[in-house]
Design goal:
Structural class: alpha/beta
Bound molecules: NADP nicotinamide-adenine-dinucleotide phosphate, magnesium ion
Strand order of the largest sheet: 14-15-16-13-12-18-19
Number of helices: 15
Helix content: 25-40%
Shape: globular
Distance between the termini: 71 Å
Number of strands: 22
Amino acid sequence: MRNKLFINKLYINGVWKYPVHGGTFDVINPATEEVIHQAPAASEEDVDEAVRAARNAFDQGPWPQMSGRERAYYLRAIANGIRAKLSELARIEVIDNGKPLPEAEWDIGDAAGCFDYYASLAEELDENPVEPIALADGRFTSKAVREPLGVAGAIIPWNYPLLMAAWKVAPALAAGCTVVLKPAALTSLTALELAAIADEARLPPGVLNVVTGSGAKAGQALIDHPGVDKLAFTGSGPVGSTVMAAAARDIKRVSLELGGKSPFIVFADSDIEKAVEWIMFGIFWNQGQVCSATSRVLVQEALYQPLLDRLAEESRKIKIGNGLEEGVLLGPLVSQGQLTQVLAGIDEARRDGAKVVTGGNKPAGFDKGYFLEPTVLADVPLDSRAWTEEFFGPVVCIKPFTDEVEAIRLANDSRFGLAAAVMSADDERCERVAAKLRAGIVWINCSQPTFTEAPWGGYKQSGIGRELGRWGLDNYLETKQITRYTSDEPWGWYLK
Ligand code: NAP
Ligand code: MG
């Protein structure tokens, strides 16, 4: 069924199978540049088969008819399956994505937690299945019920491979939907492992299907497929736009989680050590390949220079290396393409007049691997792409501001609105600023902590809809009104 190390088949309708045309693609360890596996490349025919399986499992199968409690049983079994393999999955994630092992372990634990959380929400669906609607017209009674919306096509990026799968698959399954999951080709391994765990949990056939392959082929086939009712996408803006256009053609439901250029406002009354810590966590965690990364730091003038100095000093101390090595805090970027793109962005920033305070280059002593130094840029012009567009790498831009009004203006001056953060000793000021920030997620006195229970998603071009929490479940539910005529009187319009 699988080779010694990694899975080399697609998971469709509860069966492991090779792509019909037998295609494969290389899986590369970004720390060593070694090809570690040949993953199966799904063709349009494979995606069609997966969607048909999901369609059949939804239209004819037991899954959407089950009680929430029954579905919760399977979700918990998947959560337990993930936890049972936590260290194995974390190591796979490191050699596939590059992130340091403790981060991967954190992600895998969160992925298990996500399945447990949505198991509880599935059970709650049973407790409140109907909402009575008070009608002004007393001849009728009405109720609203929530129902699974059908087949979900989930497309995810490479930065949190298993966790992004969990954010989509767990709420979709909890709601009673069936799923076709297309992971990023750069990081396909743990999505196939998730299928294996679901298989061991005896999830009914067709409820979860995993098709690995390229976005251009497998992804495009999935978003274009008329058998899909809902597209759930996380990734870049341009592809998000393509997904939304495909959804528009067939009036598919669509939710998008796209990029950002998230600001962090630090007022002068802040504790400098705490500020530096949260900035570093915000931009160097996961090599800065985070949609909500703290990529624009605004510091009030009096604190600007001391904070910049401390940030540069600490950034230089970060241990770079293979994510499997003890003590490493910064692994390689995910791919050569990503490294090339981020280095080009830094060069462009230099040409625009930005100052590279620290970093900006490939670190010395690595002849293999897509490594990049933690990078701090100052004096970045407001119209430079370094300030307006995301690097999706360990690169932070830092800028001084004078007062609250200017800070809010600079923070909101972006086409993105995923996340924002504010730090100050003055709680009222934090609340005031938080209320004015145009972003879906606002952190006060911290940056990046993410919780399964709280809504996640962007304003403006950072996306549409919310994942996580009960909002994440709503993504996969339709609302139906059921209205009854209760009067004994005839309606009496035609038949007088
Ligand atoms: P991407 O190129 O948009 O890819 C995302 C996913 O879409 C991948 O699975 C990709 O497949 C697939 N895809 C590409 N073209 C497609 C098409 N024509 N039809 C259907 N699917 C297609 O993004 P990325 O480079 O992987 O990730 C980086 C970006 O994602 C950044 O901009 C970042 O901000 C954003 N992001 C956002 C969030 C969030 O929560 N908001 C989280 C993570 C990342 P292949 O890669 O296999 O070709
Ligand atoms: Mg890889």
